Amino acid sequence: MTRLSEAIGYFRRYLKPFWKGITLVVVLTLVATYFQVMAPVYMGKSVTALTDFITQAAKGHASMQSFFQAFWLMAVCFILNVVALCISWLVTSRFNAYSTNNMRKGLFSKLQRLTIKYFDTHQDGKILSLFNSDLDNVFNAMNNAVFEIISQSALFFGTIWIMLIINVKLALITMASTPFVVLISIIIMRKARKYLDKQQAEISNLNGYINEQINGQKVIITNGLQEESVRNFRGFNNKVRKAMFKGQLYSGLLFPLMNGLSLLNLAIVIAAGSLLIMSGNIGTATGLGLIVMFVQYSQQYFQPLMQLTSIYSMMQLAITGAKRLVAVEKQKEEESVTDGIVLAGLQKNVALKDVHFGYSAEKEILHGIDINVQKNHSVAIVGPTGSGKTTVINLLNRFYDVTGGLVAFDGVDVRTLTLESLRAHVGIVLQESVLFTGTIAENIAFGKPEASQSEIQAAAKKANIHDFILTLPAGYQTKVSNENSVFSTGQKQLISIARTLLTNPDLLILDEATSNVDTVTEEKIQTAMNNVITGRTSFIIAHRLKTIVEADEIIVLKDGKIIETGNHQALLAQKGFYYDLYKSQMAFD
Ligand SMILES: Nc1ncnc2c1ncn2[C@@H]1O[C@H](COP(=O)(O)OP(=O)(O)OP(=O)(O)O)[C@@H](O)[C@H]1O
């Protein structure tokens, strides 16, 4: 399937449930078009009747009756046309609102099902662009283009039909420029499509850059890189400008061109009509009526062409947006292993057996890792930065899958367990703790919303954050919001620990926060860690070795390999890498 047909398929899929509404719109539009193309007939007849009246009046036996008759019929046509169009617009607005709502829901749900790899490899800004640029473009087009396409197509064919009925010669003259118009449109539209696609891609890059820079604003300020940041921004912004200029230029060019052609056509039609009268083939009154009709039809014939070209850039942006949304839809989802083994709880151990792993096929990060944690025992992983500590824990709850060896819970390969049951038994506290909008109590109860206040407090006490929470003006009811984040990294991590403890996971994974932790919080983290790991099956990544001296086993990782194992005392006695690391940290303390 081509990307264009996939994009069209996207619209079809979301519009299909509203086929009844669309059918009604088509019927109403046909009705409206019928009245619109009939109105000039009566307009022409009014002019003919008026001309007859003027001619008859000179002879003294004139009547305005046929003029009024034609005139009222013309007015009725106009009124019914407007009524049908209004109802049709109402129905269109409704199904558009629903279908775009479903699109937004579909995208958000899809994102929830994607693998961690997708989020690791796509900038947040680009993902946000899907919502605030691509879906918006789709919405704009749906709101305007769908209705226009239906009504203008009906008008186009309706006008051709009535013109052929009324006067074949004038009809053919009106339509003579069509091949020329279509050719120009195709050439310009092709160009416009290319640059509008580019415009969207550049906007997405720009959004990605803005997001990255805002996230890294502190680093930028600290390093005095504001000007550099603006300079790079200019680069991205200029690319958007260039693509946007060409895209808008080509797509906007169509409208004035069509307008010019339409006026030219109008002049030709008037001239041809006048020649008909002068040649004496038809009477003056009928001829004048005919000219009035064809002046209307010439405009009605060109109107769809002009309208469709003017909404072209809108449609094109929507197609580009739809292509990107389809690309997200095609992204690999997490395998849910629906018919897998349900992990009821950890009975014996968690083991990594000869685990090999790389984020890409070219570069292996872990080279044969063996770790065996017995139930209710704790393992701490230490090692230099980039040694693969986070990577090990990424494999435990299947953020990523091993490329060699296996990770097993009670001897069962995690890949054969249902994801739901696996995740239900594994609690994870990430290095970057996230607090959601809501109260502190709600944040702690995030994984167990039904938890009682006393359960929440017990978890906070264990995580050693209870006393701090009580110092806040509204205690557990203190509101957390992005703008009003009064918590340090360490405090946020303690709240995250409390949140995870509340769910009482069989296996606890804790990636200790590295930076911005003051000494008081550090001590609190240490106590919290002791509370957390005693008697609980846990994997802890520790940067401060003081926090893990109580761990049952410490694993020293270097360059993706285990180089030492043992408890704190045994490792000190070995006087190896761990010993050196511990001594150097103690020297700083
Ligand atoms: N999502 C990813 N995609 C590609 N490579 C990655 C990804 N995450 C980590 N890596 C690479 O894997 C290696 C190990 O990284 P990892 O985060 O596991 O180290 P770490 O020991 O936890 O480091 P730190 O102590 O700094 O947190 C590094 O070379 C890193 O560049």
From TrEMBL:
<keyword id="KW-0813">Transport</keyword>
<dbReference type="InterPro" id="IPR003593">
    <property type="entry name" value="AAA+_ATPase"/>
</dbReference>
<feature type="transmembrane region" description="Helical">
    <location>
        <begin position="21"/>
        <end position="43"/>
    </location>
</feature>
<dbReference type="InterPro" id="IPR003439">
    <property type="entry name" value="ABC_transporter-like_ATP-bd"/>
</dbReference>
<dbReference type="GO" id="GO:0005524">
    <property type="term" value="F:ATP binding"/>
</dbReference>
<feature type="domain" description="ABC transmembrane type-1">
    <location>
        <begin position="24"/>
        <end position="317"/>
    </location>
</feature>
<feature type="transmembrane region" description="Helical">
    <location>
        <begin position="70"/>
        <end position="91"/>
    </location>
</feature>
<dbReference type="Pfam" id="PF00005">
    <property type="entry name" value="ABC_tran"/>
</dbReference>
<keyword id="KW-0547">Nucleotide-binding</keyword>
<feature type="transmembrane region" description="Helical">
    <location>
        <begin position="249"/>
        <end position="270"/>
    </location>
</feature>
<dbReference type="InterPro" id="IPR011527">
    <property type="entry name" value="ABC1_TM_dom"/>
</dbReference>
<feature type="transmembrane region" description="Helical">
    <location>
        <begin position="170"/>
        <end position="189"/>
    </location>
</feature>
<dbReference type="InterPro" id="IPR027417">
    <property type="entry name" value="P-loop_NTPase"/>
</dbReference>
<feature type="transmembrane region" description="Helical">
    <location>
        <begin position="276"/>
        <end position="297"/>
    </location>
</feature>
<dbReference type="InterPro" id="IPR039421">
    <property type="entry name" value="Type_1_exporter"/>
</dbReference>
<dbReference type="GO" id="GO:0005886">
    <property type="term" value="C:plasma membrane"/>
</dbReference>
<keyword id="KW-0067">ATP-binding</keyword>
<dbReference type="InterPro" id="IPR036640">
    <property type="entry name" value="ABC1_TM_sf"/>
</dbReference>
<feature type="transmembrane region" description="Helical">
    <location>
        <begin position="145"/>
        <end position="164"/>
    </location>
</feature>
<dbReference type="GO" id="GO:0015421">
    <property type="term" value="F:ABC-type oligopeptide transporter activity"/>
</dbReference>
<protein>
    <submittedName>
        <fullName>ABC transporter ATP-binding protein/permease</fullName>
    </submittedName>
</protein>
<dbReference type="GO" id="GO:0016887">
    <property type="term" value="F:ATP hydrolysis activity"/>
</dbReference>
<keyword id="KW-0812">Transmembrane</keyword>
<keyword id="KW-1133">Transmembrane helix</keyword>
<dbReference type="Pfam" id="PF00664">
    <property type="entry name" value="ABC_membrane"/>
</dbReference>
<feature type="domain" description="ABC transporter">
    <location>
        <begin position="350"/>
        <end position="584"/>
    </location>
</feature>
<keyword id="KW-0472">Membrane</keyword>
